Structures are given as C-alpha cells and as structure tokens.
Request: fold
Amino acid sequence: MLLDDLMPIYDYRIRQERLIAAPRTRVWQAARAITIRTLPEVRLLLWIREIFSRLSGLPLEHFPVVAENSGTEVVRAICGRLWAWRGNIEDVAVQEIPAFERDGFAKSYWNFHLADAGHGQVRLTSETRVRIYGQSAQRKFRLYWFFVAPFAAWIRKRIARAIERDALR
Reply:
C-alpha cells in the first residue's frame, strides 16, 4: 500500500473496513471524490473545532491528496499542531509532506484502499496514521487523542457509509 510507503512507522492509528456490494469503479469514484467535509454532521463538528482558527485568520483544516494508485488507493495528508486551538494546520506543499518531521508538530495520513472481496463485493479500507515529533507534542497529542479518537472513528464510519451510498446510486 502507498500508505505503508509514506508512513511505515506511526504513533496512532484508526483502521476500518467495509464490504460494499457495488462495482469497483463506482466505489473508487465515490472514495476518490469524498472529502472530510462532505457530510453535514461532519461539517458541523469541524466548524465547532475551527472556531478559533477562523478568529485568527489562519488556514482551515484540509487533507490534500498526496499519493494515488488509480482504482486502488488514494492517500491524503495534513501537518500541524493538530491538538492546538488556533492555527493548527501548517501550510506545507504537497511534495514536501513526506519529509515533514518538525519538532513540536504532527503529520497525519488518511487513505482509502480498495480490494476485490469476491462475490461482487469490494473491501474498502480506511486508515488514519499519525506521527508525532517531539516529547512535548507527544504529551499534548495524547490528551487530544483521548477525546478526539472516538469522533475520528465515527467520522470514518459515516464517510464509509456515504461512499457505499454513492457507489450504489
């Protein structure tokens, strides 16, 4: 997987699978097109999360595509102080994200991987990996992750269902 090449070592991870009874090309189109802001309930959570970023005029959260194996896997990434109330996202050029390892920051990759599961089904796997740089950042992220991880898992489940729904249309 591309994700294994980009981040073989990580500190935190969320992984989910969903079997989808739809043509692989349709599942791929839906997985490739979806973003973290696609679902209204997710947009609301992000809006709440980003109130302080908006007040300071800093960039809002986004996950640009950093790698892709068409029809099989798409990988998005983000860098910054993900636990911070304001200015949490670093403006890092997509081609520079793999080398980003700044002390006091984190880097996160999020992928969708498709595999044939037989009987007309596609196995959609979604995985988020996070790497933290520096001891102080580790402590801050650990507390943040304690509260955020359940919501992150819920968001990924909702997105997987949305991909299935879109693929079955």
